[in-house]
Here is the input.
Amino acid sequence: MLKAGDIMTKKVIVVHPETEIVQAARLLLEHHINGLPVVDQGGRLEGMICQDDLITQQKKIPLPSYFILLDSLIPLTSQKDLEKALKKMSAVTVAEAMTPNPITVDPETELEEIATLMVKHNIHTVPVLDKGTLVGIIGKEDILKTLMPG
Here is the structure.
């Protein structure tokens, strides 16, 4: 059975929390990848920034829904959710738009488990950590390559 260490890309392109959104978008497009690990200056994984995070910036502002009960407005969405969405939409740096604490695997994680995580959590890119150190990355394309003969 194939494992993460067998299929991962070892040369990982990373960004830092202070990287500007425009630079992250440029890297995603130039390298034809869906996601970038976000690491601190010491190389520790802090999050992931992916195409979906950047596309969020282009969507409509989510207007809160309300219903009226006895002449009072009752919100159907939380103020916290609205603030989080607005913050992500107005992000200038990767730290403001990234997904913190991403799902990770280790080099011994089997292909079947990686594929299950990707589908279950609707993610396209999974960082590979060995004892907390980023050693590789697996994208959906890496999974698809395993289906090819030879």
Notes: The mean pLDDT is 85.
